[in-house]
């Protein structure tokens, strides 16, 4: 499954947030293929549509889709030079699909700030700089490799070198690799193999005080302004409260607790949803009396590829897909009703699966 790495300076609230994630964790038994390590938390992706389907079908089993969060502790100033076990942690980041960057936006005299003051923008820049330095190393190495071929006249290598130099300049200017807008194919050729840390999609968490949970505060606003230029999203939450929320198992009590704080949903739930869309992921459903299940795919995938998430045989032997929209399922109550009303579509190999589709695949074995 997909992994988001939680990064940030020490004492910003990463562990507190990670604990909230691991406490409210998904039942790992349903996901035999996840490797559960101490620094990995598995959470289910909240989805109202799954609840609707469950109500209509009343299945024996409901399986939501999941995301994994990895706690990447120990990033400090100088990490790219190896400080604080820096290189090990940077290697951990290389493996994740997206980055959740936690920034301290709360004042608390009892919690030491590693740099002596609360300044979210500066904090963010410290982490960014470490990641950029590491990326610069990777880009420099690749430049050395490609240069020979480019000098020998290889046109492909020349184009790659050109782009690599642009990345180098970007990083040297203190900007993240993701800020360079380039053609996807050219980008793949030049840096596809490098797994650049600052090219990964990012999402910021402003960890604020309890009092600022709803409206944010001057710190979270400063952060928001800064990352606006990057087109990145900021989730405002209070990690300490999130960890309390995650302790509450009873759904009704959970609702009450949120209402007491004036929250519509938990910050964690917002974070999970935002991570999901950051990665350009969508969900389709399968709905039978035995099991109603949510499946994760990348937006734009066609029916056979989407079927392959269930089983590779589904993709190989794909014949067609029967597709129902949730709204139709809701209106006509069940598959037979939908069929009768002529609302079940039969789609072929070229069908692009839409978010929320209820799919039934037909395939050869
Ligand atoms: P990490 O080093 O980034 O993992 O930070 P921790 O999660 O260990 O948090 C560092 C300290 O800050 C701990 O004492 C937490 O209790 C405290 N802390 C975390 N989140 C908040 C918060 O939202 N408000 C306040 N006041 N303290 C917090």
UniProtKB/TrEMBL annotation:
Ranges where the OBG-type G domain occurs: 2-257
Keyword field: ATP-binding, Magnesium, Metal-binding, Nucleotide-binding
GO cellular component: cytoplasm
Domain TGS: start-end pairs: 280-363
Presence of the UniProt keyword Magnesium in the record: yes
Any one Gene Ontology molecular-function term assigned to this protein's record: ATP hydrolysis activity
Domain of life: Bacteria
Binding site for ATP: 11-16
A Pfam family the protein falls into: MMR_HSR1
Protein family: Belongs to the TRAFAC class OBG-HflX-like GTPase superfamily. OBG GTPase family. YchF/OLA1 subfamily.
The protein, known as: Ribosome-binding ATPase YchF
Species name: Dyadobacter helix
Gene: ychF
């Amino acid at each position: 499954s997909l992994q988001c790495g939680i990064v940030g300076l020490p004492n910003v609230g990463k562990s507190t947030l990670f604990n909230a994630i691991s406490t409210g964790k998904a039942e790992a038994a349903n996901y035999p293929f996840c490797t559960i390590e101490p620094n990995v938390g598995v959470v289910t992706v909240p989805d109202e549509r799954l609840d609707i389907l469950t109500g209509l079908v009343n299945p024996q089993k409901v399986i939501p889709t999941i995301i994994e969060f990895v706690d990447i502790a120990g990033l400090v100033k100088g990490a790219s030079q190896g400080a604080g076990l820096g290189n090990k942690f940077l290697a951990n980041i290389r493996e994740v699909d997206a980055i959740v960057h936690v920034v301290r936006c709360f004042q608390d005299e009892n919690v030491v700030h590693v740099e002596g003051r609360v300044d979210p923008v500066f904090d963010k820049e410290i982490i960014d700089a470490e990641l950029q330095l590491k990326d610069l190393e990777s880009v420099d190495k690749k430049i050395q490799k490609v240069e020979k071929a480019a000098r020998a006249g290889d046109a492909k290598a020349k184009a790659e070198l050109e782009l690599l130099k642009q990345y180098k300049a970007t990083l040297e200017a203190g900007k993240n690799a993701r800020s360079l807008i380039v053609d996807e194919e050219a980008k793949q050729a030049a840096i596809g193999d490098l797994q650049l840390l600052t090219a990964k999609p990012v999402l910021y968490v402003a960890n604020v005080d309890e009092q600022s949970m709803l409206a944010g505060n001057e710190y979270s606003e400063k952060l928001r302004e800064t990352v606006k230029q990057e087109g990145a999203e900021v989730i405002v939450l209070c990690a300490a409260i999130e960890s309390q929320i995650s302790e509450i198992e009873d759904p009704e009590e959970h609702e009450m607790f949120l209402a007491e704080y004036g929250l519509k949903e938990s910050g964690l739930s917002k974070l999970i949803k935002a991570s999901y869309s950051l990665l350009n992921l969508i969900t389709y459903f399968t709905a039978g009396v035995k099991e109603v299940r949510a499946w994760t795919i990348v937006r734009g995938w066609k029916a056979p590829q989407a079927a392959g998430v269930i089983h590779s045989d589904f993709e190989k032997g794909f014949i067609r897909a029967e597709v129902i929209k949730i709204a139709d399922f809701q209106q006509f109550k069940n598959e037979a009703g939908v069929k009768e009303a002529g609302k079940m579509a039969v789609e072929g190999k070229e069908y692009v699966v839409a978010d929320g589709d209820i799919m039934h695949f037909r395939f050869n074995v």
